[in-house]
Amino acid sequence: MTEAERIIGTPDTPDDSDERTAGADQQDIPAERPRGRRRIAVLFGVAVFAYALDLISKMIVVAKLEHHAPIEVVGDWLEFNAIRNPGAAFGVGQAFTIIFTVIAAAVIVVIIRLARKLYSLPWAVALGLLLGGALGNLTDRIFRSPGVFEGEVVDFIAPKGFAVFNLADSAIVCGGILIVLLSFRGLDPDGTVHRD
After folding, report:
1. Where exactly are the transmembrane stretches of this chain (predicted)?
2. 155 catalytic residue (yes or no)
3. Residues 6+ apart with CB under 8 A from 102
């Protein structure tokens, strides 16, 4: 009888299983934390990859393509054409370079703060793309001419009839699309799913 009570517990006596459950809960908490750390590692890994690709591509473009004729990649549908863009996409807001710099810096800060609550792998990838892209364009804003915080972004991917952009812009757009899709599916950065 005591063995059965020990296994299933009784309302009047403390149950050893509560202690075991509490112990299991305590063991589960550290198990959750490394999983969260893995998501953070994915976020920063994707960000570093996107940033490195953008930085290397811009270095090559500045060294080999700037002040040269455009290179056709797919007929006249896609070419590489180096330009300097002081504004946002489509050359919008060329007089507001400093504002775009501040916005990029703010996005980076928000993503880094959000990373502490991150338990979703798809969100880690999306935020990593945003972070890498924002860092790529912010690097141009800070270090390229005409001056600090007023630098012009190097753009070079030129589809026919569309704006010229770079790999940082591509990462930002892909990250943004993924965030919209995740939001529509009800998946939050902390890994919870909600249905509205």
Report:
1. 40-61, 88-111, 123-143, 163-184
2. yes
3. none
Task: Burial-class residue 66 by CB neighbours within 10 Å (0-12, 13-18, 19+).
Answer: middle
Give CA–CA dist 24/80, Å, rounded. Answer: 58
The one catalytic residue among 155, 188, 190, 196: 155
The contacts of residue 120 (CB under 8 Å, 6+ apart) are 39, 182, 187, 188, 189, 190, 191
Per-residue pLDDT of 23-68, as tens digits, reads 444 444 444 455 678 999 999 999 999 999 999 999 999 999 999 9
pTM value > 0.90: no
User: 76, 169, 190, 196: which one is catalytic?
Assistant: 169
- Residue 191, phi then psi, degrees to nearest 5: 95, -10
Number of alpha helices (DSSP H) and beta strands (DSSP E) in the chain:
5, 3
Provide the H-helix boundaries in 77-164. 97-114, 121-143
Close Cβ partners of 123 (under 8 Å, ≥ 6 residues apart): 39, 179, 182, 187, 188, 189
For the question of residue 196 being annotated catalytic, the response is no
Both tokens of 38, joined, read 């893995």
What distance in Å separates the CA atoms of residue 191 and residue 55, rounded to the nearest whole number? 32
| For the chain, domain boundaries | 21-184
Q: In what order do the strands lie in the sheet with 153-159?
A: 71-74, 78-85, 153-159
